[in-house]
Amino acid sequence: MAALDRSMARVEFDPDGNITDANENFLTLLGYRRDEILGKPHRQLCDGAYAQSEDYRRFWERLRRGEHFSGRCKRITREGRPLWLEATYNPVRDGQGRLLKVVKYASDIDAIVHQEHEMQSKLDALSRSMAMIEFDLDGNVLAANDNFLATMGYGRAELASANHRQFCEPGYRDGPQYADLWRRLNRGEYVTGQFRRVHRNGQPVWLEASYNPVYDADGKLYKVVKFASDVSDRMRRYQAEADNAHQAHTLSTETRTVAEHGALIIQSAVEEMLKIANTLDASSLNIGELSQHSQQITSIVNTIREIAEQT
C-alpha cells in the first residue's frame, strides 16, 4: 500500500460516492487541497454531462455491487481542465460482505491520450483525402477505406480474401521487381513512388503511393499500410504530350529531309541554266532574262534551306 501511495494517485469513497481520503499525489494531480475535497462527491471530479448521465448512474451501481472497474477515465481538475487517467476502482467489503468503501488508484495519461488523439486525427484526415489499404506481411488485405474501394472499383466484401497480387498486372506480379517489393517491405523498408495497378474492370490505374511498414508495441513488424492518390489522368496527359513530342520530332525530321532534297534539285537546275547561259551570246536579251531567273531560283533555294534549318 505504501509503495502504491508513493507512485500513484489514490482517493477513497464511501458507498455513496463521497470522498473520505486522498493522498498527496491525487491532490497534486487534480489541484485540490485536502480540506477542499474531503466530503465532496465523486461527481464533482467528472464532466457535468457525464455526471448527470445514465452511464454514470450505472457505473456506481456496479461498484456498489462489488464489481471492479479498470480503464481510462476523463476527469476534471480544480481549474476545470479535462484530465485523462488510467484508473482502477476497487470495492472493499467487510466480513459480512457489505461495501465499506471504494479505493481508486490512478495514473496521469493525459499526454499519451492527447498524442493518440492527434495521431488519429491525422490518420482520419489522410483517410478522408487518400485511398488507404492495409496488408499483412504476406500481402493479404486486412482493411481498406472507401476511397480505395472507389479508386479500384471493388466492394468491401470482395476484398475479404483478396491479396495485393490481384491489383497488379500479371507480367509484373510474376517478375523479380514484385518479389523485391515485398522483400523490402518485410525488412521494414518504406517504399514510395508511382505504381501501375489494375482496376477491377481490367483498366490500368496509376497511383502515387507509399507503402508504410507498421510495428506493434514490442517492435515487431506486423502489417503494411499503403496510402495512395489516383494520378491516372496526369499520367495520361504526360503520355499524350510525349506522343505529340515524338510525332513533332518525326515530322520535323521528314520535313527537313524533303526540303533539303528539293533544294538539291533546284540547285542542280540553276547550275544547268547557268551553263546554258554561258554558251549563249552575251548581248542576247535571253541572257539577261535567264540571269534574272537564275537569281530568283537561287533565292528560292536559300529560302528553302532556311526553312529546313528552322524545322
UniProtKB/TrEMBL annotation:
Domain PAC: 67-121, 191-243
Organism superkingdom: Bacteria
InterPro entries according to UniProt: Bact_Chemotaxis_MeTrfase, PAC, PAS, PAS-assoc_C, PAS-like_dom_sf, PAS_fold_3
PROSITE patterns in UniProt: PAC, PAS
Domain PAS: from-to ranges: 14-40
PANTHER family: CHEMOTAXIS PROTEIN METHYLTRANSFERASE, CHEMOTAXIS PROTEIN METHYLTRANSFERASE 2
Name under which the protein is recorded: PAS domain S-box protein
